[in-house]
C-alpha cells in the first residue's frame, strides 16, 4: 500500500478539518494514511480568550504529534499550514527547522509532496504560503506534486498550487463543495504519484 502522511499545523481548526477531508479521500484511493498535527508552540493561556483555538488545541493535544519519522515513513506527504502574513505559521516552521538531521542523511528526498493552507481572505496570501512552503520541499529534494489544472474541478476552486480554504471575515466559513472536491483531487493525485515513485 502507498503510504501517505498528512502533517499540518492548525490554530482554530480549519486545518484539522481539511486534513480529515484529505485523509478520507486518500483512504478511498487505497493509501495507508497517517494524520499528525504539528504541536502547538504557544502557552494555551495566551489564546484562552479564543474559543476556536482552545477547542482545536484541546481536541488534538493528546493525539500523536508530527515527527520527522512520519516523513521518513511515507511515500508521499501533504503539508498544511494556515496563512500568516503570507507565509507559514511559526509552529510549522519550527517543525521544519527540526528536520536538519534527516535532511543531511537524504531521508526527505525522492518523495511526493504537496500542500494546503487557509486564510481569512481570498487574496490574503494562500499562494505565497504554498510557494514558500514548496521552497523548503525543493531543499529536501522532494518531488512536487501540485494539482495544476489537471482536472476540470480545478477551474472551480482555482488554485493550481495546492488547496486553499477561505475562512471568512469572522474565520468561521465551513469548507465549500469546490474546496472539498479540490482536497479529494489533491489527495488522490499525491497517492497516485507517490505510488509510482515507490515502485
Ligand atoms: C498572526 C496571524 C496572521 C495572519 N495572516 C493572515 C494573512 O496574511 N492573510 C489572511 O487572509 N489571513 C491571515 N490570518 C488568518 C488565518 O490565515 C486564518 O485564521 C487561518 O485560516 C486559520 O487556520 P486554522 O484554523 O487552521 O488555524 C492570520 C492569522 C494570524 C493569527
UniProtKB/TrEMBL annotation:
Residues 4-187 form the Flavodoxin-like domain. One of its GO terms (molecular function) is NAD(P)H dehydrogenase (quinone) activity. Its EC number is 1.6.5.2. It holds the Pfam family FMN_red. InterPro entries: Flavodoxin/NO_synth, Flavoprotein-like_sf, FMN_Rdtase-like_dom. Keywords: Oxidoreductase. It comes from the Bacteria. NCBIfam families: PRK03767.1. This is NAD(P)H dehydrogenase (Quinone).
